Amino acid sequence: MQASTRITNILGGGSDGWDVFNKAREMIAAGTPVTELSIGEHDIRTAAPILQDMHRAAMAGHTGYASIPGVPALRDAVATRVQEQSGVATTRDNVLITPGGQSALYAAHFAVCDPGDTALYIDPFYATYPGTLRGVSAHPVAVQAHAQDAFQPRAEDIAAKAQGAKSLLVNSPNNPTGVVYTRATMEGIAQVCRDHDLWLVSDEVYDTQIWEGEHLSPRALPGMAERTLVVGSMSKSHAMTGSRIGWIVGPPEMIEGMINLATHTTYGVPGYIQDAALFALELGPTFEAEIAEPFRRRREIAHKVLSRQNAVSMVPADGAMYLMLDVRSTGMSGEDFAYALLEAHHIAVMPGESFGQAAGGHLRVAMTIEDSRFEQSLQTLCGFAESLIAKQ
Ligand code: PMP
């Protein structure tokens, strides 16, 4: 018996980019301690009061099928939050609650692309993007952002591939680069979408992790609310990765369509998780800032460590929990450097190449370990780069 080509093609035949990560996991399993700067997950767990509320909700009987679009109070809370942040009028009819941002990305593309449609995305990209696009039988086409532009995508590069395309997927603050798109970048993106009649899928799951500048949702730009689907999640903002809760915000008729999709796929999100999510949102911005604080601190540490040497440079990390380090001065690819670092110093980072060709010769470092170990590991990484340059 044969599986469908749709499912066998999800990975697109190439490596899934996790080879260095898997090697590190093998070393750990064999008893070698490895410092992991590879995972995009907080080093804290979900806060106890949120878990207590989840328990309370479950004990109160919210364990049956829950409302598929999302319980009204949570849809309202998401709408209020999005409206306050973006200034765009938003009601519960604009909101679908999803089991995390990943399923929201899938649903959004399922909703905007027919089989064979070209779906654009920006390279460097979050590892699941091309597979998500192939998963809905779209044809993924990458638009490269460039290291010399600090990975801000150029509108003309997007326009050059937009003819006949159906959608564009963008992500700011960005995983893997840590870059926050400027207003000019977002305006350029919006212009291309209007000119070429593209849907815009805006992945904003890192919107609470802004270290410099401001988060601008492209849905707020002129003529964009009717063609934008915003993907949100509580994974990063509230350290709730395992609870699988997120949302899509978009035009009501698109939300209606995606409710039908949810009815035939996920059948919604557990009620006790939705209740806890509402409780967590009501903790407000102070709580969100507390969750983001360790990354803000570690970014400062990184600036300090990197300022003492010239071997490694950093792409301006204005948001998200990652640093993109440029190791091209060593003459090595990101992948070769990452393997060599793992071998020599038992430090695991992600090669830039795992996130597309545009990030070749770079490393993605997740700021997800305790401050002093983080500082020590970065020092070791820089020292290793210096030793490689000295050998050239
Ligand atoms: N988008 C980006 C850019 C991400 O980095 C992630 C998770 N690492 C997601 C979406 C999906 O997150 P989740 O499904 O946990 O909400």
- Compressed to H and E, one letter per element, the order equals HHEHHEHEHEHEHEEHEHHHEEHEEEH
At the fourth level of CATH, the homologous superfamily of the largest domain is Type I PLP-dependent aspartate aminotransferase-like (Major domain)
Number of strands: 13
Largest pleated sheet = 7 strands, mixed
CATH class of the largest domain: Alpha Beta
Please identify the structural class as seen in this structure: alpha/beta
CATH architecture title of the largest domain: 3-Layer(aba) Sandwich
Strand content: 5-15%
Q: Classify the fold: give the CATH topology of the largest domain.
A: Aspartate Aminotransferase, domain 2
Number of helices: 14
Mean pLDDT equals: 96
Q: Which overall shape is indicated by the principal axes computed on the Cα atoms?
A: globular
Question: Helix proportion of residues, in percent?
Answer: 40-55%
Any idea what the radius of gyration is?
A: 21 Å
Bound molecules: 4'-deoxy-4'-aminopyridoxal-5'-phosphate
Q: Span from first to last CA?
A: 54 Å
Number of separate domains: 2
List low-pLDDT spans: none
* Widest beta sheet: strand line-up: 2-8-7-6-5-3-4
List the helices and strands and how they pair.
Layout (H helix, E strand, L loop, with lengths): L4 H4 L10 H11 L5 E2 L11 H12 L12 H15 L8 E4 L1 H13 L5 E6 L5 H7 L3 E6 L10 H8 L4 E5 L11 H13 L3 E5 L24 E6 H4 L8 E4 L2 H12 L7 H12 L1 H24 L5 E2 L7 E5 L7 H12 L1 E2 L1 E2 L10 E5 L4 H20 L2
The structure holds 4'-deoxy-4'-aminopyridoxal-5'-phosphate.
